[in-house]
Structures
1.
Amino acid sequence: MRDVCAACHNEEYVDAFYIQYDGIIDLYNNKFAKPGQELMEAAKPLKNPIEFSTKLDFVWFELWHHEGRRVRHAASMMGPDYTHWHGTYDLAKNFYTEMIPALEELVEANLEAKDPEKVKAAKNLRQVIDKVLSTDDHKWFLGKLDEKEGAARKKAADEFKARYAK
């Protein structure tokens, strides 16, 4: 593909594109795809074994296939609006407002189960959820940003508002 790009663009332009493209792919993989897969594996003993028989199955499929595909494909086609609004925005929104709550419902529904294996799996899933959400990529969701990072984000937001509020 670099050769195709280089037919019209200089080397610096092509290199800059691939830095951005690789960055968004790494962000998608490390922030959502790999943790999502880990969460789904931990949820497996608590789910109906028939695929696509639960809301969680569809939520995960859409995070991986629809929003994830939009991120990856739009970035490869240099479509920043699609990469963000139809990709990373929907991906994050549905991860935090659909997937995490569905996983937490599975935990709650099985913590008092009569089957000790279900209780064990529910406790494990709770630990995996906590581990994922406590990483640097997700700790903001729990309100666990350290003071320095929180202050830097607030400063950047205030500067943005001051610049564009007019």
Note: The chain has one domain: 2-133.
2.
Amino acid sequence: MDTITLTGVVLLAQPFGEYDKRLVLLTRECGKITVFANGARRPTSSLLAVSNTFVFASFTLVEGRSSYRLLSAEAVAYFTELAACQPGVYYGYYFLELASYYGQEGLEAAATVNLIYTSLRAIVKGKVSLPLLRRIFECRILGINGEFYFPDGITRADGEAGRAIGYCLSAPPTRLYTFTLSREAEKEFTEAVVRNLKRAIDRRFHSEMFLEED
């Protein structure tokens, strides 16, 4: 039996059958894939803790025709503390939905996996307001996918908002959530991001209804 080990994050975990789970993973190496975790809902299963949303791990899998089967996983982070972050946990779900929207099988997703990890840590730390954290995430993921364009009248060197956009598109992931903006600059930054979102994405996500209004 040939196995493969992929590193990534659980975007979605759903019950499947009586004791199993169906997972959607975003992996650095192979992008978005579907994985079945047999017996993961049994209390004694070694897959119980690693078959949940937000878990980052190295997953050992067997590849099938259209999906994978999970054999084992070595967790890096569980992010169980997100459950106590209200309403931050809903921002986390929104980030996963947005990442899933862009995820494709066979297209490596290291940049997005890193972005999710950094963003969930930022939610837990609570040092950046959730509305600003959301717009930074959106700006960066649009940039990763080549879908962020500077609005007319704004450049990388054009005032506080323009510099913020440039920083979001190019900063190392670990330094992404290290700035704040004046009220006026944040408003301009938000408007630029929202304009790009409306142009690039043709749907609304379920988790958006739980997010705070900017």
Note: The chain has two domains: 4-78, 83-210.
3.
Amino acid sequence: MTDSTDRIGTGVAGLDEILHGGLLPGRACMVRGGPGAGKTTLGLHFLSNGTPDTGVFVTLGETEHQLRRNAELNGFSMEGVAVLDLSPGISESADQDSYNLLESWEVEGGAIHDQVLRYARTHRPERIFIDSLSELRFLSPDTFQFRKQVLSLLRQLTDEGITVMFTAEQGGPSDEDLQFLSDGVLQLEQLPSGRVCSVSKLRGSGYADGRHYYDLGAGGMAVYPRLLPGEHSADFVHEMIASGVPALDTMMGGGIHRGTVTVISGPTGVGKTTLAAHYMRQAAARGERSVIYSFDEHRTTFLQRSEQIGLPMQEILDSGRLHFQDVEPLEFDPDRFALVVREEVEQRGARIVMLDSMSGYQQSMRGDDPLERVHALCRYLVNMGVTVLLLNEVHAIASSELQVSEHGVSYLADTILLLRYIELDGELRKTVGMLKKRTGDFEKTLREMTITGQGLHVGEQLRGMRGILTGIPEVAAPAPTGR
């Protein structure tokens, strides 16, 4: 990753991370996007992040009054930011501070070129934001003159050591030309899945590829960099973690290993969350912090149900060793959710993370590939030594075909636990078995599991039956004896 000490920050922390520290000084960066994408908001961040009285906003559309008023409504202070108002119309006053230079819009683009350069050489700003450079195309007689004026303007400004950011309308008549003439191109888009930004060009520097979600709000712009698991790692001990349920731990060969992914698969109501919560209780007893991200169940319901089955969780929640977060899928995009998880791991030291469930997590993808996103998140957590409990709901109560996941996540798992219903003697019962464990041996049999007011109980191995995984087991015929 490039050293950020010589970078010019954009004022948006997540964007600077994508840009490997910010923009290179003395370069020109283009921000392209449709109406309402946040181009002007980003420009205000860029100018506000600089030294006071060293930035200038060149406006070719909004008047200075409109600009400052809109910035105030969005919670921005433009104190210390000068405005060079080259918008169309008549100057309302002769006040030199407003620097309204053009009395009429009936002027060639070359006049704007000259006025911007004159201002820059007189006031020596460190940063200039031009909104929007696309307007020059309508004032130029042809494409050649437009390219010539823009290239001259950008080159002379950057030769003065000024870092330039300018906007352009996506798909406009000058869009392609401006992309070639700029040193960097930042794309802002509004998709059905949400707002995303991407970098397609940054001369002299690397950057984070892909689309990254962002929000616009009262505080301006917030960018959530796409999670790249290979850039994160931590040292940890590959020790065994027990559930605290003796028979279950025996079946699992002692438990699960730290820094691995365990998929707990089963139909609704079979006990996936209850089983996983036992690991949280044991972690709290060791003084470790765990986090439950619940896409399906509210905190109150979880606490009430846990209390009823002899697994009280309120005490460890109050102690801070457990955090339960309700996740409303439509309020989160995958990048924002990944940042929330990172903060729990890197700032608060979470050692176990439960995602409940994969179906709920998929809803937060809003059109993204859920497998790609959960892969990145799980790989990041494993690299950081965090144990992942990924709950996966299968829709079939009973089936002749064994299905671990309907989302294709089984390849991610170091350990797979199967929870299933069976019908036996006219009664609905639950079973638990282990399908996979990369880090050690385990029982290859199934055990009956019950959840009572005294907690989770795992019984003896189920023997003498076949077809258990179909949900309708049969008594197996005794093996023939030799004569």
Note: The chain has two domains: 13-225, 231-475.
